[in-house]
Specification:
Radius of gyration: 27 Å
Distance between the termini: 86 Å
Low-confidence stretches: 369-411, 414-430
Largest sheet: none
Order of helices and strands: HHHHHHHHHHHHHHH
Oligomer: single chain
Mean pLDDT: 78
């Protein structure tokens, strides 16, 4: 029993580490657009998001039940080692995508990890396939489209309502709207993502015989998961914030307000229904929708393509890492120790690599280089060109070379000859 108790303690600590990485990995979901438009300073934004994540963790346990008793069969012989291996795969994938600045789904990393570890340890019978399809795969495909369409419609409506108004007149209203909608997304994130760690810890307690099957998460589990995700959120995943705020599209305040409102509505609805939705996919889809909803808006499709590729790889990649970890962990105590050492080494190497080009609150708004206009962007601009009435400034005259300027300055003034006409003054060009 002591061995099981110690192992459950290791699983709980590892789950809270995953919750911490989930926090800084997903800070961008709530605050990227608010930071990129200047509605809030970076530090103030992540502090507000952290507090509301903590509050949101106490509002519901429906998603936690989906994790602890919906996807994995509690009675199939799942042991704490399996959960530990699943968490390791999710943490490693979170760190890899964070280093790349890709807003991938922490939720799907967790699902992939748990599924991969379970299949290796007890076989496919330990996974509820129907629940995976209905509550993971279908929402994963539908969520970005639903949020994107809602955001695109909201963006067009917002610009239509503000048509004819000066930008200065609407700036304060959009700033307040962005802050309110970002707060709503943070609250929704707490109700959805913090519960996933609650579900994992509850599953570990059930498999260890500490609590009865189908139990709700104990209060100490809810509190510790909320605190872990809030701390990770406060530290800020600046690399992913830059990608979502500046890398997908150039966001203006009306777009930021529309994107966050659409994302919050989608996340809250999914939490109520018990869908373990990827908040990353919802918010990324909403940002892309806001880019398509503004006339003249440009979506950087190369960045969007890399994001979609990461989404598609998340479940199998985390599953493969967790499968290998589960195979080692099943060998006994030395296997569990080997998995822990390998995970620490990989995460330490990723952190060291990130220090070569650090990104923090001081340079998070330095956007990427402009993307060449491709076929898709050109077609969209043809259908919805930028608003008329803005005239591009004329190109300035090419400056003289430095050598010519120096030679002209050094040359003595020419003396007119008696037969020569006086030189006409040169006309200055504006």
């Amino acid at each position: 029993m002591e061995h099981i108790t110690l192992l459950i303690g290791i699983v709980i600590v590892t789950a809270l580490v995953f919750d911490f990485t989930n926090g800084f990995h997903d800070t961008a979901n709530a605050m990227a657009t608010t930071i990129s438009t200047g509605a809030l300073r970076p530090r103030a934004a992540v502090a507000m998001s952290a507090g509301l994540n903590l509050v949101g963790a106490f509002l519901s346990v429906e998603v936690a039940k989906t994790i602890s008793g919906g996807i994995i069969d509690e009675s199939a012989g799942i042991r704490p080692e399996v959960i530990f291996a699943g968490l390791v795969g999710a943490i490693v994938w979170n760190m890899v995508t964070w280093l790349a600045g890709l807003p991938s789904s922490s939720s799907h990393a967790l699902f992939g990890g748990l599924i991969g570890a379970t299949v290796v340890s007890v076989g496919t019978g330990g996974v509820h396939g129907e629940a995976v399809v209905m509550k993971v795969l279908i929402p994963a495909v539908a969520a970005p489209f639903v949020a994107g369409l809602a955001s695109m419609a909201a963006t067009r409506l917002t610009y239509r309502l503000a048509r004819g108004r000066e930008e200065a007149d609407t700036a304060k209203g959009y700033r307040a709207g962005q802050i309110a909608s970002a707060a709503l997304v943070s609250l929704a994130h707490g109700t959805n993502d913090a519960q996933k760690t609650m579900g994992v810890i509850t599953l570990a307690l059930i498999t260890g015989g500490v609590i009865a099957p189908h139990s709700d998460p104990p209060m100490w589990v809810i509190a510790s998961a909320g605190l872990a995700i809030a701390l990770g959120t406060y530290l800020g995943g600046w690399r992913i914030i830059r990608t979502m705020g500046k890398g997908i599209t150039d966001i203006q305040p009306p777009q930021g307000f529309a994107a966050q409102t659409g994302a919050a509505a989608t996340i809250l609805a999914s939490s109520h229904l018990g869908f373990a939705l990827s908040t990353t996919q919802v918010c990324s889809g909403a940002v892309m929708g806001s880019g398509l909803g503004r006339k003249g808006g440009v979506v950087r499709w190369s960045t969007a393509g890399r994001m979609v590729a990461a989404w598609a790889l998340t479940l199998p990649a985390a599953g493969l890492v967790s499968a290998g970890a589960a195979f080692l962990a099943d060998q006994g105590n030395w296997g569990v120790a080997a998995v822990a050492v390998c995970a620490l080494a990989v995460c330490g190497g990723i952190w060291a690599a990130s220090r070569r080009k650090p990104i923090d609150h001081t340079n998070v708004n330095e956007g990427p280089a402009a993307e060449p206009v491709g076929v898709v962007t050109a077609a969209l601009q043809t259908v919805a060109p930028p608003p008329a009435g803005t005239v591009a400034p004329a190109a300035p005259a090419a400056p003289a070379s430095a050598a010519a300027t120096a030679a002209e300055a050094a040359a003595p003034p020419a003396q007119p000859t008696p037969s020569a006409q006086p030189a006409q003054p040169a006309t200055a060009t504006s």
